[in-house]
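User: Please predict the structure of the protein below. I'd like the answer in structure-token form so I can feed it into my own downstream comparison script.

Assistant: Understood. Taking the following sequence of 80 residues as input:
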Amino acid sequence: MTNAPDTEKTNNKKARGTGPSVFKVMQSVAAGALGVQSNKRHEEDFASHSPWPYIIGGLLFTTLFVGTLVLVVRVVLSGQ
């Protein structure tokens, strides 16, 4: 009977030690930016112990989005 709590603690430590994958963070950031993220994914994201992957992903997404908009506007205006 003492083994069950020990294995549960070990499994919890393993789950806490691994963060979300880069692909999962990119999917969550893109879905959140577009406003189409499912409630299940939203709950999974908030269950993560560290918000830093999502903060960094959001900042990178915003920078790329604004940079793309600036590039498109410059290309359009240079054609006039």
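That's the full token string. Confidence is low (pLDDT under 50) at residues 7-14.
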